[in-house]
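Predict the holo structure. Ligand: iron/sulfur cluster.
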Amino acid sequence: MGKVFVFDAAKCNGCRNCQIACKDEHVDNDWSPIARPQPDTGHFWCRIEERVRGQVPKVRVSYVMHRCQHCENAPCMAAAPEAVYRREDGLVIVDPEKAAGRRDLVEACPYGAIFWNEELAIPQKCTGCAHLVDAGEAPHCVDVCPHGALRFGDEEDLAEEIAASEALVPERAGADRPRVRYLNLPRRFLAGVVVDPEADEVVPGARVTAENLATGEVLAAEADEFGDFWFHQVGAAGWRVYAEAEGYLTRVLEASTVDEDRNMGPIELYRAEA
Ligand code: SF4
Ligand code: SF4
């Protein structure tokens, strides 16, 4: 049993306290033998990626953390077993002395988590603030997160979160076995607004049904008081969308979330003949 990080995308508001805390902890601070100082610029041992999704006016912003995944089967360790080691608690450390001059390690990490320190001529990355962990404290990034979006602890204490979690790069998870786990990673959304063009009004309460053309999955939503409907966290797929309301002819349209989130825009409903 070792330590794990759990990042919950549903709780992260992109404040970047974690990113700044990493600088605060490591720039100009020498935590040898675990880490030498991080340079002032160019390194992101902990980085929040901002994803702007959808099309105006239906847009959502999501935040995803990128950092060393402290892999159980670390490709960086395989590339330089004499210079990279895993501690008993699972944290993977690039030894600043033994890895001196090993610029090739930057390419050895499939997650882009290793950076080159030009001045010291060493590869560097997140240490999980092992120097703080050894003192019984949390990594600085975890300590400053105001929303509980980033947690760190023993696997057994976070077992529930781990069971519900996924990997940042699922296709690599089996091989690398990352110790950074993710909750609520953004999927796609499918949205739109139901309108009555003849009355020049929206249609609150319209029923919208979306059928996944690949799996047959059927989702249902109701237009709110602004005529808006949303399907959140749906798959990347083609969809057949039915919009219906009392006294109107049903509209059937197709939409795709294969490449990106989709704002279908206005779906026009016309009154059925009396
Ligand atoms: S994420 Fe990259 S640097 Fe971190 S342990 Fe895995 S391979 Fe090594
Ligand atoms: S400190 Fe927490 S809420 Fe802020 S960006 Fe980092 S993980 Fe997200």
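The longest helix spans residues 17-26. The pocket of iron/sulfur cluster (ligand 2) is lined by residues 12-18, 48, 63, 65, 144-145, 147, 149-150 (CB under 6 Å).
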